[in-house]
Amino acid sequence: MGKVIVITSGKGGVGKTTSTANIGTALALIGKTVAIIDADVGLRNLDVVMGLESRVVFTSMDVIDKRCELEKALVKDRRVEDLMLLAASQRNRKDDIKPEQMKDICERLKEEYEYVLVDSPAGIEQGFHNAAAGADEAIIITTPDVSAIRDADRIIGLLQNQGIDGINLILNRLSPTLVRKGNMISKNDVLDILNIDLLGIVPEDTGVIASTNRGVPLVHNEGSPGADAYMRIARRITGQNIPIPEMREDNFFSQIINWFSRKN
Amino acid sequence: MDFRSLFTRKSKTSDIATQRLKLVLTQDRFDINEESMKKLQFELTQVLAKYFQFTMNSVSMSLKLDGNSYVLMADIPCGRINPEQ
Ligand SMILES: Nc1ncnc2c1ncn2[C@@H]1O[C@H](COP(=O)(O)OP(=O)(O)OP(=O)(O)O)[C@@H](O)[C@H]1O
Ligand SMILES: [Mg+2]
User: Fold this and answer.
1) For chain B, how long is the longest CA-to-CA vector?
2) What is the C-alpha to C-alpha distance for residues A99 and A177, in angstroms, rounded to an integer?
3) Chain A nearest C-alpha distance from B12 (Å)
4) CA-nearest residue, atom 23 of ligand 1
5) What domains can be seen in chain A, in order of their start residue?
6) Which residues pair with B62 in a beta bridge?
7) Is the ipTM of this complex over 0.85?
């Protein structure tokens, strides 16, 4: 029996979809069986971030309305074995799906896959409740700014209320240089305020945009700071004890090394 | 121009952000609605009524922000101790 993990944030645009794509791919790369679900009905994005948009034929809505079997609606990843995507319907609205229906899909998928990741939409309305309905655990994504952290706190409260125990945090887009200069809230302050366990830190990485442009998740680009961060996060999810390294600033030399080792 | 500003460092914006966050979160986390507050007041006075004699409508209760945390302020004018106690 697998595990359903909802990836959520409250605030929009903080990196839920990026994280779902990369953690899902990373888990599959280390040999796990994975299904990722786009729960952002009406505003789907996970398919394009994964580079699978041309393969999507059916969506979770078709499964719910019994137009197609669940197995048939799953899209196989182009690069990694045992990685499947269940896309969201673009024509429907978030309240066209009920929490019990999403829960049912999650429950069926976790019988086949070791990890089922659900990419939640922003907000605290129906779309969020649908995404969280079948979750055993949750990953909260936040960026180090006041409004994202405030919304994360709200979401944590709602998830705890739902009885979800394993709630972990990913701090995304951290810039060590800005933290040092005193212009960005530090990791310790975020943890102190939110009071949940840290699953990992993902640095600000321009590679994220390039990888979204290509439709190839960052983790395929081994050696970039974001890719390494997501690989470590995936290993921690599988239970490996991997310490969270202190973030290094990009100095002149590391920039030169990056420049030479860049795979374009 | 205040020449002291040349020597005293401006306070870090990250510290300002952390302070503001702490305040806003204490407010969010204690955003208790009117109805729950009334219920709390009722249940609390039920217990107190076992020990003290007082009139229910003389009781006033509120949550007040004190620095970085909330305190429950209860104003309950008490009469005599209940003889059974
Ligand atoms: N670590 C990072 N470094 C640089 N850019 C990033 C990083 N993480 C995310 N981004 C960028 O931020 C934008 C939003 O990311 P993403 O779509 O994953 O957020 P989201 O939380 O899913 O948004 P929504 O709430 O709209 O669903 C994207 O353009 C992405 O490229
Ligand atoms: Mg998204």
Assistant:
1) 72
2) 42
3) 5
4) A13
5) 3-263 (3.40.50.300)
6) B73
7) no
